[in-house]
Design a protein that fits this description.
Length: about 230
């Protein structure tokens, strides 16, 4: 499967470097129009099976969508735009963050990509005292934040403070722009904590009350942000 990563130069460069290690990929530069609305935009694209759009102008994103190929919107423009896009090409997804993408869509090409990149999946080894012995990232974010931040975890103990620090480290490495109406670095951090703890619970189910209370508060924040 060949993936075209389309950017106007601001976002997507790190994702391209990481994605190309797993899939044949091409970096495609697109214009960034200064006008709010652009009519009859010509956007020639090299052939590909899936396009990931990191462009910041909705009319440029629509020009990609009009090609009729599956598209993942790395920069989203809100639910109204998504409805407009799906009327043109139904094989579009706009995940809240690129690290929330799952391989359960109706589009085979997107599912193939999301088996490798998307919602984090970890293999953890945790000692009886709650110390993380090892972390293996099975699936992570295409920007590399999962791998980078998780490499710091071995030898640390699962506590509310350490989990909060891990979330902040995800935010540090995260490349999610704060421009789309759904992209949110904090959501990226919280989703990583959630999935890390799911893996930790599978490895060592007993979590202390402070950790449980922290996770309950975290779920409330996720719910607020994902349903705003």
């Amino acid at each position: 499967m060949k993936i075209g990563i389309v950017s106007d130069g601001k976002f997507g460069d790190r994702a391209y470097e990481i994605i190309r290690e797993k899939f044949p990929s091409e970096w495609i530069m697109a214009p960034f129009p200064q006008a709010i609305m652009v009519d009859d935009l010509e956007l020639p694209l090299p052939d590909g099976d899936l396009y990931i759009s990191y462009v910041r102008h909705p009319d440029v994103a629509l020009a990609i969508i009009e090609k009729g190929k599956p598209v993942i919107l790395g920069v989203s423009f809100g639910p109204g735009f998504l409805r407009q896009a799906k009327a043109i090409n139904e094989n579009i997804v706009a995940p809240p963050t690129m690290c929330s993408l799952e391989d359960n869509t109706w589009v085979p090409e997107i599912n193939e990509f999301a088996k490798v990149f998307g919602r984090p999946v970890f293999d953890l080894k945790v000692r009886d005292d709650g110390t993380i012995e090892s972390v293996r990232v099975i699936r992570g974010s295409p920007c590399g934040s999962t791998v980078e931040a998780s490499a710091e975890l071995p030898g640390t103990k699962i506590t509310p403070e350490q989990l909060q620090h891990y979330g902040l480290r995800i935010c540090h490495f995260c490349r999610a722009p704060r421009l789309g109406k759904t992209c949110d670095k904090e959501v990226s951090g919280l989703l990583h904590i959630r999935e890390l703890m799911r893996a930790a619970d599978a490895a060592k189910p007993a979590a202390g009350e402070p950790v449980k209370a922290f996770l309950e508060e975290m779920e409330k924040i996720i719910d607020q942000k994902m349903n705003r």
